[in-house]
Amino acid sequence: MTEEKKTDKKKCGGKSKAMFFYGIIQLSTNVVSAVALAAIALSLYSVKQESKLFNECIEEVQSIGKSSSDAVRFCNGGK
After folding, report:
1. pTM score
2. How many CB atoms lie within 10 A of CB 70?
3. C-alpha–C-alpha distance, residues 18 and 69, integer Å
């Protein structure tokens, strides 16, 4: 009977290690997902800033008296 208990404990030890590594993998994937979401948020912020500057450029060129299409061409780098 004592031998049966020893073999049962060994089997549980293997499951315990597997669950531990499963938890570590889950935790690491959650961290990677959080970092990816933060990177996406930062990139969207920079797009917002660039869009704001582009709109200001359009308004400034239009105030000079050029048409909307000329203002867009100028702000995109055209002459």
Report:
1. 0.54
2. 14
3. 63
Crossing angle of helices 2-64 and 68-75, in 10° steps, is 130
Alpha carbon of residue 22 to chain centroid: 23
User: Residue 77 has what DSSP assignment?
Assistant: T
Residues near 59 by Cβ (< 8 Å), separated by ≥ 6? Answer: none
User: Which amino acid type is present at position 60?
Assistant: E
HEC per residue, 41-57? HHHHHHHHHHHHHHHHH
Question: Percent of the chain having pLDDT more than 90?
Answer: 70
Do 58 and 68 meet the contact criterion of CB atoms below 8 Å apart?
A: yes
Give yes or no for a contact between 75 and 54, defined as CB atoms under 8 angstroms apart: yes
Which whole-number Å values give the CA distances from 12 to 2, 3, 76, in the listed order?
16, 15, 66
